[in-house]
């Protein structure tokens, strides 16, 4: 081969490779530009001024139709300005229709803005609707692509859901936001609420081994006064709300209630108590309070000779927080005695709530069936066919371990010294 011709041939090959690389880079750049143009498009945008942000929804019944109440934020009133209030911070829109989506569409007739549901904080269902069944209304909330699943679902106990949303509140300008935050704090401090998101509720409703529960909420005080702006200006005797109980479901229907103490015992069993307060009687007279600082609950289901059993192991640490009696807390035997009393009290109260779920409601709200499913899937295939009847007579073994760790900044109460002074 001619030496010069060979060199030129190699140069052409290099140039050809370089040209191909350049063409690929240009093609990729055009693709990225096209994709960027599509991704940055604003074809589906909604301006903030065109939105009504919905914080809470209430569902009641009017005949055979659903009565929907939506609490929306009034932006002008939410922003505090000098010179006084600009009006109520929220507004309630109402509509009645056979379905959820139709009711929301009807609300648009009286609203100049689009109802935006992505910031929904609470869904309140009236007790009447809950007793008739909630599966139909939940289908809409599980399908809507704008809804996130991180909102709490509650039952308006003995009253209309609309009334819960209509209260003009203290400390928070939005009632729905206040209820949401109160639920969070109750979970951390009292352990008496069932903080249930949409996904949690749907999971319990379709599970054969666990029944659903929802927190009950009700108003205290005058309902008429609570809807007025003056309610938020009172320092006392104002209309408020409280979480009074936990609603127990069988399938998708509300069948009864657990009171506050029973609700806390239920949360002990399922391991949802982070902190709470327990009161004990002193050896002679008076009482003392313990703040529960650590709780660990383990649930196990077993099948022996074809018969299901459940075991609950509860470990708890507590600190003495308030003493209203004469007691020698500096003695180890005193603390051991208090541990035994608390264990005895918890064993009785936890057994009571289990018996109530079995005999009164016939509803496995604890998830003992799911525990058996996890430990013995083969046996569960047969048990789940008749689980309600099996649950009613299910033996549940309780194992409770209590440790009192601290007595505060002082061992004995000054009440001891005052008592000695009186005896002198």
Q: Summarize the main sheet.
A: 9 strands, mixed
Average residue-wise pLDDT = 84
Uncertain runs are 81-85
Q: What would the principal axes of the Cα set say about the shape?
A: globular
Strand content: 25-35%
Please state the structural category: alpha/beta
Number of strand segments: 13
Secondary-structure element order, N to C: HEEHEHEEHHEHHHEHEEHEEEHHHHEH
Distance between the termini: 126 Å
What is the percent of helical residues? 40-55%
What's the domain count?
2
What is the CA-based Rg, rounded? 31 Å
Number of discrete helical segments: 15
Task: Give your account of this protein's structure.
The longest helix has 37 residues, at 3-39. It is built from 15 helices and 13 strands. The strands form 2 sheets. Strands 1, 2, 3, 4, 5, 6, 7, 8 and 9 form a 9-stranded mixed sheet that branches. It has a 4-stranded mixed sheet with strand order 10-11-12-13. The chain folds into 2 domains: 47-78 and 88-258, no CATH class; 261-424, GMP Synthetase, Chain A, domain 3, CATH 3.30.300. The chain has helices at 3-39, 75-78, 100-107, 127-132, 135-143, 161-166, 175-189, 198-206, 223-226, 260-270, 332-361, 368-375, 377-383, 387-392, 414-423; strands at 51-62, 65-73, 90-97, 114-116, 122-126, 152-156, 213-220, 240-250, 253-258, 276-281, 287-304, 307-324, 396-406. 40% of the residues lie in helices and 28% in strands. Residues 81-85 have low confidence and may be disordered. It is a lipid-anchor. The chain crosses the membrane at residues 21-41. InterPro entries: GerAC_N, Spore_GerAC-like, Spore_GerAC-like_C, Spore_GerAC_C_sf. It is found in: Membrane.
């Amino acid at each position: 081969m001619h030496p010069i011709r060979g060199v030129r041939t190699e140069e052409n090959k290099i140039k050809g490779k370089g040209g191909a690389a350049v063409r690929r880079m240009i093609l990729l750049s055009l693709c990225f530009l096209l994709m960027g143009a599509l991704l940055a498009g604003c074809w589906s945008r909604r301006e903030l001024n065109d939105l009504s942000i919905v914080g809470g929804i209430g569902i009641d019944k009017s005949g055979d139709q659903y009565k929907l109440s939506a609490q929306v934020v009034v932006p002008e009133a939410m922003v505090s300005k000098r010179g006084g209030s600009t009006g109520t911070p929220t507004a309630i829109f109402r509509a009645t229709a056979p379905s959820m989506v139709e009711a929301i569409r009807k609300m648009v007739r009286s609203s100049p803005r689009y109802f935006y549901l992505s910031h929904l904080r609470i869904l309140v269902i009236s007790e009447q609707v809950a007793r008739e069944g909630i599966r139909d209304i939940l289908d809409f909330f599980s399908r809507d692509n704008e809804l996130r699943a991180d909102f709490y679902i509650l039952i308006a106990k003995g009253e209309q859901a609309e009334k819960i949303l209509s209260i003009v509140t203290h400390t928070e300008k939005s009632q729905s936001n206040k209820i949401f935050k109160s639920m969070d704090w109750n979970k951390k401090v009292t352990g008496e609420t069932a903080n249930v998101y949409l996904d949690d509720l749907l999971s319990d409703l379709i599970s054969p081994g666990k029944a659903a529960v929802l927190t009950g909420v009700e108003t205290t005080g005058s309902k008429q006064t609570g809807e007025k702006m003056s309610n938020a200006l009172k320092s006392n005797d104002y209309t408020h709300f409280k979480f009074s109980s936990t609603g127990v479901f069988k399938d998708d229907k509300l069948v009864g209630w657990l009171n506050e103490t029973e609700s806390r015992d239920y949360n002990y069993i399922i391991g949802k108590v982070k902190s709470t307060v327990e009161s004990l009687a002193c050896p002679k007279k008076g009482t003392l309070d313990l703040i529960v600082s650590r709780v660990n609950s383990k649930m196990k289901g077993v099948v022996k000779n074809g018969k299901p059993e459940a075991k609950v192991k509860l470990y708890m640490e507590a600190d003495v927080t308030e003493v209203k009696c004469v007691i020698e807390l500096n003695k180890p035997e005193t603390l051991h005695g208090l541990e035994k009393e608390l264990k005895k009290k918890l064993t009785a109260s936890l057994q009571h709530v289990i018996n109530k779920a079995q005999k009164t409601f016939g509803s496995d709200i604890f998830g003992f069936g799911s525990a058996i499913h996890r430990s013995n899937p083969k046996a569960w295939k047969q048990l789940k066919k008749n689980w309600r009847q099996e649950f009613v007579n299910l033996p549940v073994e309780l194992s409770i371990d209590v440790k009192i760790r601290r007595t505060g900044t002082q061992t004995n109460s000054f009440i001891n010294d005052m008592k000695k002074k009186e005896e002198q």
